[in-house]
Amino acid sequence: MSLDTPQSLGEYRLELTTLYGPLIGGRELGRVLGFSTQEAFRQAVKRGNMPVRTFAINGRRGKFAATADIAAWLWSACHPLEPPYPTTKKGGV
User: Fold this and answer.
1) Which of helix, strand or coil describes residue 39?
2) Angle CA(75)–CA(77)–CA(82) in degrees, nearest 5?
3) Which end of the chain is less congested by CB atoms within 10 angstroms, N or C?
């Protein structure tokens, strides 16, 4: 990641996507989500305690998550008063 602090979710998403690509899986996924060990990550998956949606890919081992989902989750954890996605007023305005 760059030395500059991202000023928006979009910038943060772009930085993570540049670093990891559109999907994060394997040991990287557990590390990015803040699990101290792979066993802790496996237990969270088994118990359904994942902070983002994870999924399997046919023919590949392990779980994967969309980098954009991880960016939104991390952004909302660091900026709890800001919604991770733009909101619109009723009536589409």
Assistant:
1) helix
2) 65
3) C
